[in-house]
Write a structure and sequence with these properties.
Shape: elongated
Helix content: 25-40%
Number of helices: 6
Largest sheet: 4 strands, mixed
Distance between the termini: 64 Å
Low-confidence stretches: none
Order of helices and strands: HEHEHHEHHE
Strand order of the largest sheet: 1-2-4-3
Length: 205
């Protein structure tokens, strides 16, 4: 492993840990930006313009993120247990496409697929989610710990989804790509740019 790290360091690759909503790169720095399962943790109204900023004209942005049907079984089970939001709300692919256009990207293409993973128990599902750093960022989340009674109620409600001895968890994976146009005809605030070239008295511009 140390040998591999040394070879990577010699290759000139640079690793930067940064906030996607405030990228520490100059404007038009990259030909491509690739984002894998990051956007659903961000404020898209801030992250997408930052990605646009660091792309060169003609550059492409490719990404995957999670859609609104992600963990729908867990969301429905918690809804029966109490009145709080326990599962993050994810943005629909159509809304992501609209936000790409609003952020001045061109020719956005969106697609999605649903993947279903199964677990021996709800506890096993929650353990895997926590190990991946998943947390509840909803404004309507409970401010304290869930009580044992509420947690038991959620687990009981989840049992109705069990199939062949396993509990399922749906993940809606959204894929997309869009381009920074070669000739950007809008300002940083989204206004259209129209150029006027008045003619001189001699007929020349």
């Amino acid at each position: 492993q140390r040998g591999l790290m040394k070879r990577l360091n010699r290759s000139g690759r640079v690793r930067v840990c940064a906030d996607i909503e405030q990228l520490p790169f100059s404007e038009r720095a990259f030909d491509m930006v690739w984002s894998n399962l990051v956007l659903h943790w961000t404020d898209l109204s801030r992250a997408l313009p930052e990605v646009y900023r660091v792309l060169r004209p003609g550059g492409v942005f490719m990404f995957s993120t999670l859609g609104p049907d992600t963990l729908k079984e867990l969301r429905a089970s918690y809804a029966e247990a109490d009145g709080f939001e326990h599962v993050n709300r994810f943005v629909d692919l159509h809304d992501i496409g609209d936000m790409l256009v609003q952020s001045r990207f061109g020719d956005p293409v969106m697609d999605m697929e649903q993947l279903t993973l199964t677990y021996a128990s709800v506890d096993a599902l929650l353990k895997e989610l926590r190990s991946g750093g998943a947390g509840n960022a909803n404004a309507g989340r409970p401010r304290g710990l869930s009580g044992k009674r509420g947690y038991a109620s959620m687990r009981s409600a989840y049992e109705r989804f069990r199939i062949d001895g396993r509990v399922p968890a749906t993940f809606e994976v959204v894929y997309g790509h869009a381009w920074r146009p070669q000739n950007d005809r809008r300002s940083a605030h989204g206004e259209s740019i129209v150029e006027f070239h008045p003619r001189s008295e001699g007929g020349r511009r």
